[in-house]
Structure formats: structure tokens, C-alpha cells
Design a protein that fits this description.
about 450 residues; single chain; alpha+beta
Length: about 450
């Protein structure tokens, strides 16, 4: 005995279709799109206000638990919600995907049908049809050939069937919203692609050193191919230009892109707002520091000591180091510097100020001659790769074009010639006053 499958009823077959249509209706709802857009804007603002990609210590210092910012925003909340890397969190990307789905559904369920309806020829064959138009009138005589000539001169496309005429212009205004939606989808796709495949890194590199990108702060799950492995950067020189009153005017980095064999592939001097771009990776000049100092004790070889930033409690930036003056390291002096202009302060072992020196000067201290040669600057570079940027720029370009197209009025005019005379009427989706004047001018010409 066999059991046959029960036949599917029309109701069971239509259930998936009904569910899909209900889903489209919900997703394509303009109110949902507005809510999603506001949410994306709100979280984007939070990503601008809250520093992104910093260390845990930074957030602990700037967003303590007591007192909490706004009464609730602490470093723990920031880390739990991912507000320290908003644009790569799963929930922000989910918002982008959901908003893109809403745009796509709206495009196919509303914009394309509206365009199809606008392109369809619609002839009015009965006088009562003109009564539905906000702007229509009855005229005594209608010369179809003269009328079509006038309409063509005003840019209308003419369709005629017997004694009925349909004319339209500005169909591009109906295409504009579709272009706007497509542009926004391209922007969203570019943002998502950039989050998945891009990376952000920071490096502090002493002048004269070479490095490869290692200090990755943020990286998408598909970013490995973007991180350079067969080439690196050499910092040929770093320097700062100062104003006459001693303030920083601009800081520069002379960079060379080199392959693994040390061969130079590209050379450029960068500064703020003038980065180096190579193979999809951009190097921005963002910071600077003092990495070391070169010194000599009596006739010893010139040696280089590292300098570290000191905690000034927010009162400027100072770097310091300790220079031994005896081989057994039993005595030494402290050297402090606040910039690369050359003036350095020397303190003895008691912590008292001994002297101010400049590069090349010799000090007699602790029974030795100490000569300070030069400070070694370091450049702070922000390194970024975002393969989604070309898509975002393309989307913004299309967005501007689509917005301009959307402002073009879609105007329609109907004419019907009868034995007693005729009827003429029309409508437009914007610039109502201008259209009324145009239609009245056409009617006066016919009379």
C-alpha cells in the first residue's frame, strides 16, 4: 500500500507569493526608509563625535564611568556597542543593507511602474475625461496640424490617434528618481565594500627609517589583499617649518615607496592635505614627534638615544631622555625638548636646570664634555585603503545628476477635436504656474 502525496491547493501555492508581496509592501514603505535614513545619520554623527580606532586606555581616560558623559556614555558602553568603530560594526552594516533593500523595493514597486505609466500613450476620446483635469477648457475650433506644430516647438512629443492628440515632455523627470535611487544604492554598496575590504593603520616613523604597514587599527574581514606586503615606505627626511613667533607653520615628510629589494618605486614630499597615494593605499601626514637625539661624550663615538613623550597633564608636548656621562651609568643628565627648532634643556642629577643648548654646542658637566649633535624627528602617518571610494564618488556624481533630472517637470497635454469644436487640457507634476501660463498661451494662439 502506497501513500501518495497530497495535492497542493491553490491557497498553499499562493501563500509564498502573498508573504513576499507583504514583505515588499513593508520594506518599500517610505516611513521605514525615513526611519532607517535617520538612524544611519544618527550613528554616522556618533562616529564623527566619538574618536574612532583609539586604544582602550584612551577611552578609559576620556569616557570614565564616573562621571559618565550625558549620564550614561562610558568607555564600557562604547566598546560593547562598537562605537569606537561604528562604520564597521555588524549592526551599522545591517542598517545599510536594510536601507538598500528598501530603496530597491521602492524602485521596482513604485518608480519603474510610474515611469512605465508616464511613457504609455493615453488618449482622451470623450469630453467628460477632460473634466477630471485641474486645467482644461472647451475651445470653438481646433486645427490639429497647427496645434501639433506649436507643441513640437515647445518641446512636446506628439502622439495622435484619429481626432485625439496626446503630448508630453519632461519624461526625464520621471527617470530622475530612479537615477537617485540607483546612485544611493551605489553609495551604500561602496560604503559596505570599503568596510569589508579596507583598512586603517597608523605609524610613527623616525626620519631615515624604513617600514612596512603593520600597526593596523581597523581592518575589514576581506582586507588582507589590500595590505602591502611586497613594498614599503622609506622616510628620507622629516622637518617642520615654523612661523616667526615660533608656532608650527607646516610639517613635511619626504617619502619613497620601495620594493623589498630597496628600489625606489615612487617619491613624494607630503604634508597636511597633500598625501601620497600608491597602489590603492593613501599615506596622510597627521602627526609628528621626536624619536631620538644624537650625542657624544668626550671623544666617544656619536651615539643615538631614544626620546619619549612625557606626561605634562595637558600642558603641551615635551620629550625627554637620560644621557649617561660615565661608562658605568652611575652619572648622567636629563635632556628635554619641546620641538625640533633646536633648543634643548639640560638638567643635572638633582633635577636642577643646568643649561640650555642647541645642536653643536658643548657642555662641561660631571667632568666630561657633552656635545649634542641633533634631534631626530619622527613623522606620524595615517595609512588608509578604501576600495569602496570610487563607487562612493561615482554614486555622488550620479546623485547630483539624478536630483537635477528630478526637478524637470513632466507635463502632459490632451486634445480632442469634435464636430462642435474641441477640448484641451493638461497637467504637470511641478512648476504648476509656469505650465498654466504655457497652456494658456497655446489656447490663445489657437483662438
Amino acid at each position: 500500500m502506497t501513500i501518495s502525496d497530497s495535492p497542493q491547493t491553490p491557497e498553499s501555492i499562493s501563500l509564498p507569493k502573498q508573504g513576499f508581496r507583504q514583505f515588499l509592501k513593508i520594506v518599500a514603505d517610505l516611513r521605514l526608509a525615513i526611519v532607517l535614513l535617520l538612524a544611519i545619520a544618527l550613528f554616522s554623527i556618533s562616529g564623527t563625535v566619538i574618536e574612532q580606532g583609539e586604544t582602550i586606555g584612551f577611552y578609559q581616560a576620556n569616557y570614565p564611568e564616573a562621571p559618565a558623559l550625558f549620564g550614561f556614555l562610558t568607555w564600557k558602553i562604547i566598546l560593547i556597542l562598537g562605537l569606537n568603530h561604528v562604520y564597521t560594526t555588524w549592526w551599522f552594516l545591517s542598517l545599510l543593507v536594510l536601507f538598500g533593500t528598501s530603496l530597491t523595493a521602492c524602485t521596482f514597486t513604485r518608480q519603474f511602474p510610474a515611469l512605465k505609466a508616464a511613457r504609455k500613450w493615453q488618449f482622451y476620446q470623450k469630453p467628460r475625461q477632460f473634466q477630471k483635469l485641474a486645467l482644461s477648457t472647451e475651445i470653438k475650433t481646433v486645427d490639429i496640424s497647427s496645434l501639433t506644430t506649436i507643441l513640437e516647438q515647445k518641446g512636446y512629443k506628439i502622439f495622435q490617434e484619429n481626432q485625439a492628440v496626446y503630448a508630453r515632455k519632461g519624461i526625464i523627470g520621471k527617470i530622475g528618481p530612479i537615477v537617485v535611487h540607483a546612485a544611493m544604492l551605489i553609495i551604500l554598496g561602496g560604503a559596505i565594500w570599503g568596510s569589508l575590504t579596507g583598512f586603517l593603520a597608523q605609524e610613527m616613523v623616525p626620519s631615515g627609517s624604513e617600514f612596512k604597514v603593520n600597526n593596523i587599527i581597523e581592518a575589514g574581514p576581506l582586507s588582507q589583499p589590500q595590505i602591502p606586503k611586497d613594498w614599503g615606505i622609506r622616510v628620507n627626511r622629516f622637518w617642520i617649518d615654523y612661523t616667526q613667533d615660533g608656532n608650527i607653520d607646516q610639517f613635511y615628510s619626504d617619502l619613497s615607496v620601495i620594493n623589498n629589494g630597496g628600489e625606489e618605486l615612487k617619491h613624494k614630499i607630503i604634508y597636511v592635505n597633500e598625501p601620497l597615494r600608491y597602489n590603492g593605499v593613501t599615506f596622510y601626514q597627521t602627526n609628528w614627534g621626536i624619536s631620538g637625539v644624537q650625542a657624544q661624550v668626550n671623544n666617544s663615538p656619536i651615539f643615538q638615544l631614544p626620546m619619549a613623550p612625557l606626561d605634562t597633564k595637558g600642558n603641551g608636548r615635551i620629550w625627554g631622555t637620560w644621557i649617561p656621562t660615565k661608562p658605568d651609568l652611575s652619572e648622567g643628565v636629563s635632556l628635554l625638548a619641546k620641538d625640533l627648532q633646536g633648543t634643548m634643556m639640560v638638567y643635572d642629577q638633582k633635577g636642577d636646570l643646568y643649561s640650555a643648548v642647541r645642536p653643536g654646542m658643548i657642555l662641561d658637566i660631571n667632568g666630561v664634555k657633552l656635545k649634542i649633535y641633533q634631534l631626530i624627528g619622527s613623522t606620524g602617518l595615517q595609512i588608509k585603503a578604501d576600495p569602496g571610494i570610487p563607487f562612493v564618488y561615482t554614486g555622488f556624481g550620479l546623485l547630483m545628476i539624478g536630483v537635477i533630472m528630478s526637478y524637470i517637470s513632466h507635463s502632459q497635454i490632451w486634445v480632442l477635436q469634435t464636430d462642435e469644436g474641441g477640448y484641451i487640457g493638461g497637467k504637470t507634476n511641478r512648476s504648476q504656474v509656469t505650465f498654466e501660463r504655457e497652456l494658456l498661451g497655446i489656447i490663445e494662439t489657437l483662438n
